[in-house]
Write a structure and sequence with these properties.
It contains five helices and 28 strands. The protein has about 475 residues and is mostly beta strands. It comes from Massilia forsythiae.
């Protein structure tokens, strides 16, 4: 009987604990949203509460600004996914504060709140390949499945790849021999971590900065440093849209011509009749050279194992416009006459070139890379509906995997399809149309083969 009573009490306690854990704590609230954005399976709306563990996602045009419970700021830019895994604040005893973010893909900005500044040792920001700790900080992060890059706006960060004692399950910064620090004083520099790499690499130059990969909106709060090292003097986390409108109106008023005083009306003076003069004939100007059509630069930009880059990305970005970056592949547009999508008609393309690799992720920073071939490619664009469809097969190690996608065509020829959470067999892709070479197209892509394998690559097409 006693054993039965004890068992009953234990079961009741277990149910009570489970019920208590089912109610996640509030981590913050949404203060601004634009475009496609969601919390869990619901559209994101201003004023909504964000709870621990909820999946946050933005579409290709989406932005999400979250004010945390301790007056911090967390921003997701387009095409991003993240979670606030934990946001437990103990103002009475900061040692008990626990804060943990997870950026699954895309670009995010994190500005430390009041509680984080008091318990920096208990803050962790994870990506698929790296752990980030803070020194009282405002920073931005880009990540995909294979590479993360961190830039600091104020304060400093400590970054380490997942290896040895540094694991995604940990809390606080991974301080160790392989960790590297970056401060706001190191302007124009980044820390980069690739999968399987314990020690981050310091990159000079801002060509790959998260703010260039996914620029902030003009109303995103600006970071302002104070005299204290690593401090931040800005508490304004609400986009000041009204102030921008007032400034614009004031600017217009300043440019308006001043009123002129009235002048007395005098009788018009009499003038003699004009004497005819010969009309000068303007010299014939030589024809101006026709500007060439803008073209496409595409391919691998980063080396992994024996797979060498096709070009040096910072050099190409100094000459051309960066359109998209996905894993190890980049897409740029060369200067020239802009592509303008027609209002109707359709066109098909033939696959001319492609590059791809398959990543197999075994966890804990262990992965392998295998070459892949792209075959049976199809790409069709319908300008009337502003849409496109594409498909191909990935061939690797004797296996074949079909992939497909459908998406939108912008007026300047950009192609967009998919979300980071696309199911197996569907592509996330970003591409570009061009009139160069009689009509061409290219896109970079990633897709999930199964729970362990992903494909990353690029394709180039010519008009049929």
């Amino acid at each position: 009987m006693l054993r039965h009573q004890i068992a009953t009490i234990v079961i009741a306690c277990a149910w009570a604990c489970a019920a208590q854990g089912a109610y996640a704590a509030d981590a913050g609230r949404i203060i601004f949203t634009s475009g496609k954005a969601s919390i869990g399976d619901q559209p994101a709306v201003e004023g909504a509460r964000v709870q621990e563990g909820q999946l946050l996602a933005t579409g290709n045009d989406g932005y999400l600004y979250i004010k945390t419970v301790d007056n911090g700021l967390f921003i997701l830019r387009p095409g991003s996914r993240a979670r606030i895994d934990a946001y437990h604040v103990d103002n009475a005893d900061p040692a008990n504060t626990r804060v943990k973010f997870e950026l699954l893909g895309g670009v995010a900005r994190s500005k430390s709140g009041d509680a984080v500044k008091q318990a920096r040792q208990n803050f962790r920001f994870n990506t698929p390949v790296a752990a980030i700790g803070v020194r009282g900080t405002d920073f931005t992060v880009f990540t995909d499945e294979h590479t993360s890059r961190v830039a600091v706006l104020t304060g400093g960060v400590v970054v380490s790849g997942f290896a040895g004692a540094c694991s995604p399950a940990g809390s606080g910064p991974c301080d160790g021999a392989a960790s590297r620090e970056l401060s706001a004083a190191q302007r124009g520099q980044l820390l980069q971590v690739t999968r399987g790499q314990a020690a981050p690499q310091l990159l000079s130059g801002s060509a790959l900065a998260p703010d260039l990969v996914s620029p902030p909106r003009t109303d995103e709060p600006v970071a302002k440093t104070d005299a204290a090292a690593g401090g931040s003097s800005t508490n304004a986390v609400t986009p000041n849209l009204e102030a921008k409108k007032v400034a614009a109106l004031n600017s217009i008023a300043e440019q308006a011509p001043a009123a002129q005083p009235l002048q007395p009306v005098l009788p018009a003076p009499t003038t003699p009749a004009p004497v005819p003069v010969p009309v000068a004939v303007a010299p014939v100007q030589p024809d101006q050279p026709v500007q060439p059509d803008s073209g496409i630069v595409w391919g691998r930009w980063q080396q992994v194992d024996a797979y060498y880059p096709k070009f040096h990305l910072p050099t190409e970005m100094s000459k051309n416009e960066l359109i998209a970056l996905d894993g190890d592949y980049a897409l740029l547009r060369t200067p020239g006459r802009d592509f303008v999508a027609p209002n109707n008609g359709a066109v098909g393309f033939t696959l001319r070139e492609a590059e791809a690799v398959v990543y197999t992720d075994y966890g804990y920073g262990s992965f392998t890379v295998a070459p892949a071939t792209v075959a049976n490619g199809r790409l069709n664009v319908d300008f009337g509906s502003r849409g496109f469809t594409t498909s191909f097969d990935i061939l690797s190690k004797g296996e074949s995997f079909p992939f497909q996608a459908s998406g939108t065509v912008d007026t300047d020829g950009r192609l967009n399809a998919g979300e980071q959470s696309s199911p197996k067999g569907y592509l996330n892709l970003q591409g570009l149309l061009s009139n160069d070479k009689g009509g061409s197209a290219a896109y970079i892509f990633n897709g999930r083969i199964d729970d362990m394998r992903r494909v990353n690559g690029a394709t180039y097409w010519q008009k049929r």
